[in-house]
Amino acid sequence: MPVPSALVGFSAERECDLDARWAMAYAAALGESAATYYDTSAGPLPVHPLLTAGVEWPLLLEADAAAGLSDDERRRGVHSSHQVMLPAPLLTQGPIKLRATVDGVTRLRPGAHLVTRFQACDAEGRELWTTLHASIFRGVEVEGEDRPPPQDPSVLPDLAAGRGGAAEGEVALPVGAAHVYTECARIWNPIHTDVAVAQAAGLPGPILHGTHTIALALSRVLELVDAEPARVRRIACRLQAPVLMPSRIRVRAWAGDPVRFEVAVGDGALALSRGVVELEKK
Predict the structure, then answer these.
(1) Which structural domain range is residue 195 located in?
(2) Is the model's pTM score more than 0.90?
(3) Which of 17, 203, 217, 256 could potentially form a cystine with 198 if both were Cys, beta carbons 3.0 to 4.6 Å apart?
């Protein structure tokens, strides 16, 4: 059935703890080796910026359900762009209060474009992060007038194109990469882990989670530009080609303010494009 543009303004809330067990498992799923991600004797642990997606996942499902989509239509959803903004380093803590709000519903050539905003705060009401998550539901119509979001996370300048001087690094993805990420991020979608479900959706096999690709890219970008994760204040990108497993992805980063990046799969197609990482100045 069509996605109603009247869905704009729908909101849902949840509370949860961002505890050490979750933060350490997520870091391990990404292959992080820095002791700071695991040393619980030093106080609250630093949290990888993309673990925010795991906290948001249950509310994203609620927003999709409110759209009235069938199971088949939900499976046609493609994560198309993503942006996370953090005013300060994210640490383990709880309870966290999270609100999801549907910001926009518009028609695009491939299908219905849905933008959801997530806003997280701590128990005292201090802002922890804001995420803009965009999905395209392929072949799904929109009912009612287009209602564009105040901020579209897919609107990003293509400043990396045609520039030389990129630093590059590879990331190897074993066949079970998505299974490990699924459990450690607590994001359960069978298109990433179940061959039959992925093939029914028209894919050759399970694909890596979009947020997994972004998280791996961010970690490698920070290595390439010699920056600490605690300095990340914004990461944004478009998601394009799917990433299959086993495979290798190549991360290219252009140092600057902001840092620009992209991620290519084996045949050269871009999995992530127009990537931006804004760092707190030293």
Answers:
(1) 156-282
(2) yes
(3) 203
